[in-house]
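Margin note from the TA: students keep mixing up input and output lines. Inputs are the sequences; the output is the structure of the whole complex. Example:
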Amino acid sequence: MREFNIGIIGLGNIGLEVYKNIKKNSSDIKKKTGFKLNILKVSAKNLRKKRGIKIPNKLLEKNYLEIIKNPKINIVVELIGGADGIAKKVVFDSIKNKKHVVTANKALIAKHGDQLSILAEKNGVNLLFEAAVGGGIPIIRSIKQGLIANKLHHIYGILNGTTNYILTEMEKRNLNFKDVLKDAQKLGYAEANPTADVDGHDAAAKISILSSIGFGTKIINNGFLVEGIRKIEIEDIKFAKDLGYKIKLLAISERLGKYIKQRVHPCLIPINLDVANIDNVTNAIVVDGNPIGRTIYEGPGAGKGPTSSAVISDITSIMLGNDEFSFGLSPSAKKNVHLFNFNNHISKYYIRFLTKDVPGVLSTITSNLAKNKISVANLIQEPSNNGNANVMLITHFSKESNIQRVLKNLNKQKKLFKKIVMIRVRDLKKL
Amino acid sequence: MREFNIGIIGLGNIGLEVYKNIKKNSSDIKKKTGFKLNILKVSAKNLRKKRGIKIPNKLLEKNYLEIIKNPKINIVVELIGGADGIAKKVVFDSIKNKKHVVTANKALIAKHGDQLSILAEKNGVNLLFEAAVGGGIPIIRSIKQGLIANKLHHIYGILNGTTNYILTEMEKRNLNFKDVLKDAQKLGYAEANPTADVDGHDAAAKISILSSIGFGTKIINNGFLVEGIRKIEIEDIKFAKDLGYKIKLLAISERLGKYIKQRVHPCLIPINLDVANIDNVTNAIVVDGNPIGRTIYEGPGAGKGPTSSAVISDITSIMLGNDEFSFGLSPSAKKNVHLFNFNNHISKYYIRFLTKDVPGVLSTITSNLAKNKISVANLIQEPSNNGNANVMLITHFSKESNIQRVLKNLNKQKKLFKKIVMIRVRDLKKL
């Protein structure tokens, strides 16, 4: 009898769902892989917590270190989360003990993935993390295996469901960021501390992982632009809409010769762009490569069902022995990264100035733009509350460093400007 | 040195592109798989044909039977096409000779796939065909591996690029089917004999394959509804648009208890449905399952680049030993099929009557509908050329058998009706 024994460490929403779905689908898994899959042990911080399901006592393991050391266990499933702490120890030590590891932990992989994949190769085990990016969407597998014959040059998309939900609701219900965030927290779509999502860090970890797999480079996990959506207000969404744009938080990575241009920031995107109508918590990833052209992958970006689907697909991949390299190639073959200097980024820019309605505001804006060689394509001024006004404009193609210089100058003028919001515009002709 | 030797049989557009891309990416393939990939032999009907590329003489093999028998060759790549004839002989005999087989041949797999997968299992080799469905989109791999933990219940999409191109151009350029078809043939998007594409057979073979993989059932390759797009005219597209629909040729398979409801036919789909904006030659496949929910896969559905990408991904899958079962599970575990009786299909129906403008037409239509318990939701009559008129209507939910009875009755009345076009309507609430 060929069989695999796994230990699950972490019994939150995801861990419990993985447990249930393996139990439920065990005969299917056997038919599809030819192997029996046994859950040998599960471990959680609080084993006595009510979980609405009876887990046999002999499966419960108080000390997760026992799972890592258990000689009968082939695969450790880490579902604790966090870039460091216990999760890090579990994954490093499991690999050192020659256990295969499956994890949904994007923060850990983005931070330690290079080191971990070297360690996994050295110990002859697999480290897989499909659930770390795009929830249930089989995006990592598609890039590693389905697109294996391609030279990729562009990966981008909507990788964070929480922010996409917030932006969708702001537009749909004509509300501001803060109000929708509160609702999202109540509904469980956003965490009590929403920083990882709304400030772009979650999307950043995900694009770091995809970029490394797609371009065969070491992981870029710092020094690149990461901006969230806190500053966006309903006025921005409305103005964008009037001009034929939607606002989305995009994670983007491009290969430009030997440079990688990777970043996370909100974008005004044309309403006919492929991801413009990806709403609510849905994720979508666009992958451009040669010879295949463009493929797009879309689905639920989070949630226990989709995540457990991805976790189990990794477990069965290990059972089938089908996934040798964590990042799609031998870690020793990963190229060093030359990060594109983002000051040289060329884009159209949307800028909104919430101004005090005093003389000289428009002239201050326009003269500063002119001095920095930035020309304006659209401009509109509208009254706002309390005697303020919104001046909103979109520039022609401009250089990031020039825009930053203008923003720095004008942000200093507290007497004129109460708030300045800049959002980059994605143009179909020049992304 | 670990290495694999392949023989390519068929050097058309696709075969040549596979050859070129393997040559071009050989060092990448080695890095990603750990194996060297050698093209040992290629064979084509006419080896002397100018192909714009120098293939070394020692690789050229006049008699494809020599490739099938060559003891050094591990994998045979069949790129001839056609459900029977030489392609069939190549694939059957290669497997009998214990060669792995990669093919892009949807007609062959749809017709002989069950038998072939049994033969492959018996001979301990792989038979893979990612390129047979959705061009470069890794849809087969995603369903077999990425969604392995799910119970699927619904697979549908746009699986034929040619017909999608024709429908897109008809709408964009306000032209009729025949005119766009001529252009498409000139541009190479449609074949001289367009039957396989425009009559739905190509999409039918593809949904047969996906349905079998997705639901774990034997292949349904006959006895299901297959309708093409020949009958659709610009009037239908315009009327649909006015009511908020687009017309698309969909291939659909659903699991309803023990029944499979599989079919290919044009549909009026709401403009906010996920595949409504998939235009030109792009394909898109929607997959619903539990626990994952809905995922969507989109990309170029044909062409030498995308197809070669899929063919090479299958070759590397074999090299990595990662894909034991052609249809995702042991052929002996495939369930028998109970095909849903399509007479019991419930849908809204669009019907256009091109009528002679004589008294009694409307009354004949409406009385026939009433007699068959079909009620009308929208109706519009417009004058057409030569003193004719178009009566276009959309029914409320009705039963297929009742609709067919009406169409049969009215089609007999040649004095009143010059043409009757029926297209099923896909409703978001009841697909």
